[in-house]
Write a structure and sequence with these properties.
Length: 389
């Protein structure tokens, strides 16, 4: 029998929902639940309405006897009306009946302890609950599904097989064939590549989970703020015919083809006698330097080369992409090789949207790569160990 107490906690996340689920897990779960409801417990894995002793409240009750439950222990779930007071009172009654309050992650820890989940799946559940972006959610789901675990296990088995073969050869050196040695080296190299592949996938996963910074920059009056608004579909930044309108940079979240971005509008780059404008340009330059993608905008009515110096001076980070855009294209194109847009009225933005989405799309496998995964993979990495000889 498990040595720990029966635990109880609210399993549902949102306090605003209509229903809350109180989960009880442990050897005493069934007797505790029995003490709380009027009548008999429902049959295993059948949800049934029961009246609770506490305030005559009605609850949907589900009984999942161990070991075929989430935690591997006897589990009872009470689906009750939500509301902090109601749920708090019922939970209090469960604790009075003999359960101990569950701490964050306790149910999952028990599931891991009872081998209902592997460690990577348990980690995946924590990552899934904490996921803030679509990419984080996708990656966490793959971890919960055990995809990374299966890959690692497949490689581990191959390592084991290779070790056995090499040891057999050490025992019988007279039977060692040069072809065997070549095969061992090739197998070891491919296993090393798998580990390197995970490390690269962890890095891609990290980038995909963070919001790429897409910074709109260019000379004053190019229509940067108008384009910023057009991409967002709302009036967020001031647009005016006065050059030097934008001073502080403006940030907004935007989702393009499923990828979440941080779109940034900046002050038009130019020399100025106005201290405040100079400070704004400085902020804009900092934004450009930390951008993953720079959308460089010039108006079709602006003379070519106006920003040539700026172009050269832009402190663009290694690996950042530069997308050149000619705005006000209805006035006649000067730079037909650039992407043409008309930020006002904001139609025909599709080619630019696609270019931004392409620039932030990361090809290849993406893994969640928690600190433990990265540490273990680095330990196994051939670049760390040196060449296999
Ligand atoms: N004809 C035309 N005018 C536009 C277009 N987009 C913007 N404008 C006008 O261009 C002027 C400048 O627009 P803004 O968006 O304020 O330009 P900006 O690049 O943000 O300028 P600063 O903030 O001063 O650097 C405004 O008068 C806009 O109405 C467009 O597609 N066509
Ligand atoms: Mg502006």
């Amino acid at each position: 029998m498990p040595e720990h107490h029966t635990i109880a906690g609210v399993a549902t996340g949102s306090p605003d929902g209509g229903v809350a689920i109180i989960r009880v897990s442990g050897s005493e779960a069934l007797s505790i639940a029995k003490a709380l409801i009027m009548g008999e417990l429902p049959a295993p894995r059948v949800l049934a309405v029961r009246r609770l002793v506490v305030g005559g409240e009605r609850a949907l009750v589900g009984v999942m006897p161990g070991p075929r439950s989430f935690t591997g222990e006897d589990v009872v779930e009470l689906h009750v009306h939500a509301g902090a007071r109601n749920v708090g009172q019922i939970l209090e009654a469960v604790l009075e009946a003999g359960a101990v309050a569950a701490q964050a992650g306790d149910f999952t820890r028990r599931a891991f302890g009872n081998r209902r989940l592997s460690l990577d799946q348990a980690e995946g559940i924590a990552a899934l609950i904490g996921a803030q972006t679509q990419a984080a959610l996708d990656q966490a789901r793959r971890l919960v599904a055990g995809e990374l675990g299966r890959e690692v296990e497949a490689v581990r088995q191959k390592v084991e097989l290779l070790r056995v073969e090499i040891e057999a050869n050490l025992d019988f050196p007279e039977d060692v064939d040069a072809r065997d040695e070549a095969r061992f080296a090739a197998t070891a190299a491919s296993l090393g590549e798998a580990v390197e592949g995970w490390l690269a996938g962890f890095e891609r996963g990290r980038l995909a989970r963070s919001r790429a910074r897409v910074v709109i920059a260019g000379p004053p009056n190019a229509g940067k703020s108008a384009l910023f608004n057009a991409l967002l579909g709302r009036r967020r930044a001031l647009v005016s015919a006065t050059a030097g309108t934008t001073r502080d940079y403006v940030e907004a979240e935007l989702t393009l083809e499923g990828r979440e971005l941080c779109l940034v509008d900046t002050a038009g780059l130019r020399e100025s006698a106005d201290n405040i404008e100079v400070a704004g340009v400085e902020l804009g330059r900092e934004q450009i330097a930390s951008a993953d993608v720079i959308v460089w905008v010039e108006g079709a009515d602006q003379s070519v080369g106006l920003s040539r110096d700026d172009h050269d001076n832009l402190n663009i980070a290694a690996g950042a992409s530069l997308i050149r855009v000619e705005n006000k294209q209805e006035l006649g194109r000067r730079r037909p090789e650039w992407i043409g847009v008309s930020a006002e009225p904001g139609t025909e933005l599709e080619p630019l949207r696609r270019a931004i989405a392409d620039a932030v799309t990361l090809g290849g496998e993406q893994w969640i790569g928690l600190a433990r995964h990265r540490d273990r993979a680095r330990e196994a990495s051939p670049t760390r160990l040196g060449p296999c000889r």
